[in-house]
Write a structure and sequence with these properties.
The structure holds two protein chains of two kinds. Chain A is an alpha/beta fold. Chain A contains nine helices and ten strands. Chain A has two domains: 168 residues, Rossmann fold (3-Layer(aba) Sandwich); 75 residues, no CATH class. In chain A, a hairpin with a 2-residue loop joins strand 4 and strand 5. The longest helix of chain A has 15 residues. The chains are: A alpha/beta, B mainly alpha. Chains A and B meet through helix 2 and helix 3 of A and helix 6, helix 7, helix 8 and helix 9 of B.
Chain lengths: 255, 315
């Protein structure tokens, strides 16, 4: 197989005495949908934040498309084609849906030290916004202010914003968080389509979704990778069952 | 922008018309006090509008904005004192000095957020205040009298009150037009995006600090222009122009008028200075009435005067 799109080697992140990411190594191949699962507090979001540059790694390396990006700031990584969605919806709440997506398109269309023309009237940006919105089925809500969108719509908008940056690699942090059954099914369908266009790293608690979508699954427990394999093999993996699926099933049954 | 005939549009149109026609009234009635008062109001409105650019649109709560009033003023005063009377030199120097000051303190203070940012901008402005107080050659604490207003050749005579009034008004409208273009441009979208969610802006690929700093410098430069106007208006510049209470006044004008609304700072400044003027006629303890009044506005009318006139809208 060719060089992986994303290669993580021996990555470490500490919060005081706690090791949130404990020497994680991980390869994501071009074109695959790679899921990362693990119980709460396993360090999944921390890992995503390290990959996108919101958190600085204490040691280890991250290379993306053959380039070492370990020390690059977040905005430079985004320029290279690394996009993320946030577990807790993080949009521009007082802008419209279209503005949110247009902003992402603008970020990848040269510098923004342009002080005169009306950005909302730029056809290129508006078109990019419309196409990303229709990609996730939000075109009718283009002119709605984000704070007036439903939670499910905001999750979809998160995805549209990430798509508008024309990513090579999409890091999705629990895109189904807080979605109802119908909305979740919709999101799975959407991801089924997107995976054909872009490499995806998916962090998700919804096991049905993960096993339906993933080519490979990495299991993270207490910041360490305990397994990385195809879904069928992960299902049979003893340590995974013990550390994660077993416990977690008990927990998820509560809802 | 939809141009609907709502209360806000009407009020703004009336205010603009009133400001344009004021000299006609004062000349006919011979009541020049109104002209003096409104010249001052217009200059402060320009300063408030510049503060609104970073505070209302950019979400940067600068508590040191009066520093630029002083720097612009001292640039004019010091050059005049040294025998350089030409406005073509004085004013560019005033703008450049303000821009430079904004660049330096912006580069340092924009590393911080929230309360720390407020405190550090305040500290820098106070430093400017004490530096000005220490300028023995230029009057120190007592300030510096400007014996001759900026000379623009035959172009315009700043000693003529009506001409000076219209120059100030031109600067105000020009400044607001500039800010309007900026906030709706690509640059302005980024700045407003940063107010809304900085982390998100970074994640989609914006190097956020650069945009903030440039916005900070633009704002400071516009305020420096207000400083140059103010010095010419009072024929005097003193450290008091930079004192932190003056920065507070500017913030109040912006909040009173409505943060992040284009014309709000003008309405806020008119309301603030007229109120101050009126209340001080009754009692020297006018601040005792002004304070609670502001408190009520902040508590019950979040969008300020502009918000009361119509749905609060940004951009």
């Amino acid at each position: 197989m060719a060089e992986p799109l994303l290669r993580v080697e021996d990555l470490v992140c500490r919060f005081g005495g706690v090791i949130a990411t404990d020497h994680v190594s991980l390869d994501v191949n071009s074109g695959e949908l790679h899921a990362i699962i693990g119980p709460n507090g396993a360090g999944k979001t921390t890992l995503i934040s390290q990959l996108t540059g919101q958190l600085i790694s204490h040691s280890g390396t991250i290379s993306f498309a053959g380039q070492d990006i370990t020390r690059l700031p977040a905005h430079r990584r985004s320029r290279l084609g690394l996009a993320r969605s946030f577990q807790i919806t993080s949009l521009l709440p007082d802008f419209t849906a279209a503005d949110n997506v247009a902003m992402a398109a603008q970020a990848h269309d040269g510098h923004s030290f342009r002080f005169w023309g009306d950005a909302r009237k730029e056809k290129g940006l508006r078109d990019a916004a419309r196409s990303a919105l229709s990609r996730v089925g939000l075109e009718r809500r283009a002119d709605t202010v984000v704070s007036e969108l439903s939670h499910g719509e905001q999750r979809e908008l998160e995805l549209a914003v990430a798509l508008a940056t024309k990513p090579q690699l999409l890091l999705l942090d629990e895109p189904m968080a807080g979605l109802g059954a119908t909305e979740s099914a919709q999101m799975v369908k959407l991801l089924q389509e997107l995976r054909r266009e872009v490499t995806i790293v998916l962090v998700e608690h919804d096991m049905n979704a993960v096993f339906a979508l993933a080519d490979r699954i990495t299991v993270l427990v207490y910041g360490r990778v305990i397994a990385c394999d195809a879904p069928a093999a992960i299902r049979q993996h003893d340590e995974v069952k013990r550390a994660y699926l077993g416990d977690q099933h008990v927990v998820t049954r509560h809802d | 922008m939809k141009a609907s005939l709502n209360a806000r549009t009407i009020i703004v149109a009336l205010v603009v018309a009133g400001l344009l026609l004021l000299p006609v009234y004062t000349t006919l009635s011979g009541n020049m006090f109104g002209l003096t008062l409104f010249t001052r109001i217009i200059i402060y409105a320009l300063a408030a509008a510049s503060l609104n650019l970073i505070m209302g649109y950019g979400g940067m709560m600068s508590f040191g904005h009066a520093a630029y009033l002083g720097i612009g003023g001292y640039a004019v005063g010091i050059l005049a004192h040294e025998g350089i009377g030409s406005g073509f030199i004085q004013w560019p120097v005033a703008l450049a000095a303000s821009a430079l000051f904004a660049l330096v303190i912006g580069a340092l203070s924009l590393r911080t957020r929230g309360v720390y940012f407020i405190m550090i901008t305040l500290a820098f402005a106070q430093m400017a205040y004490y530096v000005a107080s220490g300028l023995a050659r230029y009057g120190g604490d007592d300030g510096l009298t400007i014996y001759k207003r900026s000379d623009f050749g035959g172009l315009i005579d700043l000693s003529n009150r009506v001409q000076f009034y219209y120059l100030c008004l031109f600067c105000l409208f020009g400044g607001i037009y500039l800010i309007w273009r900026i906030v709706n441009s690509r640059f302005g979208m980024v700045v407003q995006g940063l107010r809304s969610n900085e982390r998100r802006m970074q994640a989609i690929g914006f190097p956020v600090n650069r945009y903030k700093l440039v916005c900070f410098v633009i704002s400071g430069t516009i305020c420096g222009l207000a400083g140059a106007l103010l010095a010419n208006n009072t024929d005097f510049v003193s450290p008091a122009a930079m004192y932190w209470t003056r920065s507070g006044d500017l913030m109040v004008m912006v909040i009173l008028g409505g943060m992040g609304s284009l014309f709000g700072p003008v309405l806020g400044t008119i309301a603030f200075l007229l109120l101050e003027e009126a209340l001080s006629q009754f009692t020297e303890y006018w601040a005792l009435i002004m304070g609670p009044l502001l408190l009520l506005i902040v508590l019950f009318a979040r969008g300020g005067i502009d918000g009361m006139l119509g749905r609060a809208r940004r951009g």
